[in-house]
Amino acid sequence: MAIEFLGTIGGYGFTEARFFDTLVSNGVDCFCDVRARRGMRGSEYAFLNSKRLQARLVQLGIRYLHLKDLAPSSATRTAQREEDARLGESKRGRAELGQAFKDHYCQERLAGLAVDPLLTVRLQGVTRPVFFCVERLPAACHRSLLANAISSSSGIPVRHLAP
């Protein structure tokens, strides 16, 4: 079995029902959490807090992986916070990552990314993985940088799942 696509999905903008319906309707078989911290603030998104999320994924028959080594470092997140402050943008309102974030993330996580072991060992037997973080728009989140880097190396297409 080969990987058919690399999915990405954010949390913001989804209701709980629509989020899980989107995973199921796209045949996602592996949920790759690429957050450093696996919690979300507010009752609206409590379903995306790690323990509750993992319990629901088990019910749906979707494998869960926490790929913390692919999450941005605190220095990279700080670079984005500074850019957001300079532009007067909020995390939820951001349409695209800043160049400083992209540069940091590419240097610290993607430059040495071993794509083949990621696909053949960590995602062994998976056909439709999805990379998850919180931002609504793929361009505003590192998950798109990650998926695009893997796609460039492997030729596997990327599918962004949105609310």
**Considering DSSP H and I runs of 4 or more, what fraction of the residues is helical?**
40-55%
Beta-strand content bin:
5-15%
| Biggest β-sheet description | 5 strands, parallel
**Annotated CATH topology of the domain at 6-70 and 115-161:** Cobalt-precorrin-4 Transmethylase, domain 1
Count of discrete alpha- or pi-helical segments spanning 4 or more residues:
6
Number of strands: 5
Described by its quaternary structure, the protein is: single chain
- Structural class category: alpha/beta
Order of helices and strands: EHEHEHHHEHE
- The 3D shape can be described as globular
Biggest sheet strand order reads: 3-2-4-1-5
What CATH architecture label of the domain at 6-70 and 115-161 applies? 3-Layer(aba) Sandwich
Overall mean pLDDT stands at 93
Q: Tell me the distance between the termini.
A: 28 Å
Radius of gyration, Cα only, in angstroms? 15 Å
Describe this structure in words.
There is one protein chain. The chain has a domain at 6-70 and 115-161: Cobalt-precorrin-4 Transmethylase, domain 1, CATH 3.40.1010. 42% of the residues lie in helices and 12% in strands. The chain is built from six helices and five strands, in the order βαβαβαααβαβ. It has helices at 16-25, 50-60, 74-87, 99-110, 115-122, 142-154; strands at residues 6-9, 30-33, 63-66, 129-132, 158-161. Strands 3-2-4-1-5 form a five-stranded parallel sheet, sandwiched between helices. The longest helix is centred in the middle third of the chain and has 14 residues, at 74-87. It is globular and about 45 Å long. The model has no long low-confidence stretch (mean pLDDT 93).
